[in-house]
Write a structure and sequence with these properties.
This protein is mainly alpha-helical. It has one domain. About 80% of the residues lie in helices and about 0% in strands. The chain contains 2 helices and no strands.
Length: about 55
């Protein structure tokens, strides 16, 4: 994938998210804060799962 193609994908994803938030900056911030919370919770769950597994020898 060329760099320009990757940038176009990123721009499209950002525009899609902005559209879902009605191009409202407050809704956009809320969207990203919620995503951040979800990712943190998932990371903490993965860490807890990994710590509960027996150590490999």
């Amino acid at each position: 994938m060329k760099a320009t193609e990757a940038l176009e994908e990123i721009r499209k994803a950002r525009e899609d998210i902005s559209r879902r938030c009605d191009f409202d900056p407050r809704k956009l911030v809320d969207f990203y804060l919620e995503r951040q919370k979800e990712r943190l919770a998932r990371a903490q769950q993965e860490k807890a799962t990994a710590e509960s597994l027996p150590a490999a020898s």
